[in-house]
Amino acid sequence: MAQNQPIFQIKPEEHFAQIPVSIERDSTTLINSNRKPNHWPTILLSTICVIIGQSIAKLLENFYYDKINRSEYNEHRQNDGVWTQALLQTVGFPLLLLPFIILTAKKHNQPSSDQFHYKSLAVIYICIGIVMSVQGRLSAMGKLEIPFGIFTLIYTTQLFFTPIFARFVNKIKFNRWVVISLVLAIVTGALTLSSSFGGEPDEAELNYARGSLAALFAGVCFSLLLCNIQNVFDSYIFKRTESTTRKPSFSSVFEVIIFSSLVATLISMVGLLIAGEQHDLKREMNGFPKGKGSYVMAMVGQAVSWQIYWVGTVGLVFSVSSVLSNVISVVTWPIVSVLVVIFFNYMDDELDVFKGVALITALLSAAAYFFRLHKENRNSAY
């Protein structure tokens, strides 16, 4: 019996070592062998961050445009504030420094990675930061050029580009549950066409060609951004732990956001200064109907909310894939749409059948993807 005991101990370890390899090859969501199979707490927390962050950021954005009487702007000031809105999406990254330092300090004694990886990551973070700033600028401009319903329809095309990029860049395979989730998410995005936006242009300000292109390329940039972030995790950050016994830490999420946002913030600040928007900020703050304090709180609130959103978005890429991250981001739109109806009294904006069906399809889309994750994690337990 004593001689057979070592054999009994080795066999389960060999069987367990083969499971992650099989999952990585066949998985739709690309659960890497270095990722924990039971990662539901991280997924749920990241999903909540996406919903809360995006909802609050969008509400404050509507509040900002509503109170500055955006509809009264003339054509020469139509695109005022687009660099400011792009800046607000990334400028709050210093808030993540403290949790990043705390989580990084716990693994301080672990062996460092190859210097080549650091040089490669520096270049990649610069590229991601450029894409982030461009995406933010195009998105802000598109909403001021065309009706918000049309912008939403075009911007939903990101759900076509993300699977394409994920398939060829990240080598992700798809099954029926993920396809169903994507289809339902596309329907959800399309059904939010009846949503209202505080900065929507009037008829004299409409520029369909420029606004449509801005919305389209903003969607492409967002898809490319998510897939590049996943490529950073899979090709660099996760490989740093292959020679160690530790698992990838959530600190890598903060790492990606901080360094990429630093680059994006610098670019947006330069664009803001060149466009002279710093003078518009002073004028708007002095003339804000609710007072300077409310103006500052609205801007700071957007910056903080966007960071919560980015933690959730990148966290979902870290935990699962760029595809799920994009799905959760889009299925949050109906929630924002309903909240806008509740908190703002825009003309012809009400809780119609489109918003109701969008909420249902959003729930089904998320449920389809989470069901796939449940099956995947259950299979990995055996």
Outline the secondary-structure elements.
Layout: H1 5-26, H2 40-67, H3 82-88, H4 97-105, H5 115-143, H6 148-155, H7 158-168, H8 176-191, H9 208-237, H10 251-275, H11 277-286, H12 292-319, H13 322-331, H14 333-343, H15 353-380
Helix pairs in contact: 2-12, 2-14, 3-5, 3-10, 4-10, 5-9, 5-10, 6-9, 7-9, 7-13, 8-13, 8-15, 9-12, 9-13, 10-12, 12-13, 13-15, 14-15
Description:
The protein has 382 residues and is mainly α. It contains 15 helices and no strands. The relative contact order is 0.20.
> What sort of overall outline do the alpha carbons produce when their principal axes are compared?
globular
Continuous helix count: 15
Return the structural class.
mainly alpha
Tally of DSSP β-strands: 0
Order of helices and strands: HHHHHHHHHHHHHHH
Mean pLDDT: 83
The poorly predicted ranges are 1-34
The description of the largest β-sheet is: none
Helix content: over 70%
Report the span from N to C terminus: 26 Å
Q: Report the portion of residues in β strands.
A: under 5%
Radius of gyration: 22 Å
Organism: Brassica cretica (Mustard)
Membrane topology: Multi-pass membrane protein
Main location: membrane
InterPro entries: PUP_plant (IPR030182)
